[in-house]
Amino acid sequence: MAIKNNNPSGNRTRKPVSVFVAIGLCCFFYLFGTWQKSGFGKGDSIALEITKHTDCNVFTKLDFESHHNYVEIAQPPKQKIEAFKPCDVKYTDYTPCQEQDRAMTFPRENMIYRERHCPPDDEKLRCLVPAPQGYKTPFPWPKSRDYAHYANVPYKHLTVEKAVQHWVEFKGDVFKFPGGGTMFPQGADAYIDELASVIPIADGSVRTALDTGCGVASWGAYLLKRNVLAMSFAPRDNHEAQVQFALERGVPAVVGVLGTVHLPYPSRAFDMAQCSRCLIPWTANEGTYLKEVDRVLRPGGYWILSGPPINWKTYYQTWKRSKKEVQAEQRKIEELAEQLCWEKKYEKGDLAIWRKKVNDRSCQRNSAAICQSKDADDVWYEKMESCITPFPKVASSKEVAGGELKKFPARLNAVPPRIAKGSVPGVTADLYNEDNKIWRKHVSRYKQLNTLIGSMRYRNVMDMNAGLGGFAAALESPKLWVMNVVPNIAKNTLGVIYERGLIGIYHDWCEGFSTYPRTYDLIHASGIFSLYKGK
């Protein structure tokens, strides 16, 4: 409802008043401004006082040049870039610390000549090792398990010497690996099936394995599909390029031997170890070699022996040995196993399996035979002694010495017992978990920068300064494996890495690594140059 305006003339009476107010304000501000300009205003007197104190001298010579040109700018020193020339082709398969000519100058006793013997500084090569003529990118995994290019490893010796045992066959321009071995001519799969009838391989209880005297590493190659990582080693000897074949196949392996120094692995590292006709004299030197296997075998772990002297009644004549000799050898192994606190779990045909007890509560041991060393992980270039590595202390007969491990893959990121028990100085569970987060972030970024990481292209990976194994854990995949190297001058964390279900080795980067040229697809170096700065 509209409201009528009863005074329509009201607006007309207000307009003149507004006009007069506006005119009055304009006049006021005009007069105020005139007064200020006349000099009687306070603001102008302040401005005048400031002007009196101002130096208004005229500068006739003004310099507009930059006044810091006289400061000498430090130029970075010119670096001389050294271009390394190719080595002679005879060094195509150069292994600095296992060269045959140098090896033959050392005693053969106890395999000393097959151990690491590195060249002095004045004999080290200062050239780039060339690839063999016709070298090709290796086959991607899993094809590489069964095939390798002949041009990459041009050695046919094993195809003849081990033809009946089906180690390797030469076909056209490639080698084929049927999966055979001296003690498993029907194939590694069938052999592993027999082992799995005794050893819990399928459920993740067994993750890390050691193959002593590995040949072309078919045992390790076929364990991979069962999610078991085997560290294989063999010497560089008359079995041409056996470790080189293994690495070309994409299987973890190093050049090594059981001689007079400790194996470059921490105590309690492996869930399973085997000798498949490795011809290691287990009873020699008061059982020193078997005691070294015991050192690296985890409480509750398994040792497998296939080949001499097992099944000696059938083969002693074939081995050209007397019945008395091989019978005594097996009896001695049985006695050593009992001293080591191992229980025999299986013997059938050519195969025997022992299990190491989870602690020493039920062991009958001579205390004089126990090693007195405080650190069973301090082994780089250390001589082996004929003594037994003690079990870590336990509070009950059911407790696993050193700590119980989760099954893989839960084991990968669980807090390792060595950290939980405070055995690694300065490393706590919180620091360990934070380290894992950091490496997951780094690896995610690496994959953005290099899309081949995590693909089939990079199979053999190395971490030169592995720390707690965070890089390898973040990369964990059936497509690849990581050799975690813990430098001998770094904090000793290799035991932690093995407790995570990863593999690795001790090494001094001032020396050549125990491998052949061209055996890794990707090498990761975090902090390695800072670690060795000035050394």
Automatic annotation (TrEMBL):
It holds the Pfam family Methyltransf_29. GO terms for molecular function: methyltransferase activity. Coiled coil: none annotated. It is a single-pass type II membrane protein; Single-pass membrane protein. GO terms for biological process: methylation. GO terms for cellular component: Golgi membrane. Belongs to the methyltransferase superfamily. The chain crosses the membrane at residues 17-35. The keyword Transferase applies. Keywords: Glycoprotein, Golgi apparatus, Membrane, Methyltransferase, Signal-anchor, Transferase, Transmembrane, Transmembrane helix. Its EC number is 2.1.1.-. This is Methyltransferase. It comes from the Eukaryota. It is found in: Endomembrane system; Golgi apparatus membrane; Membrane.
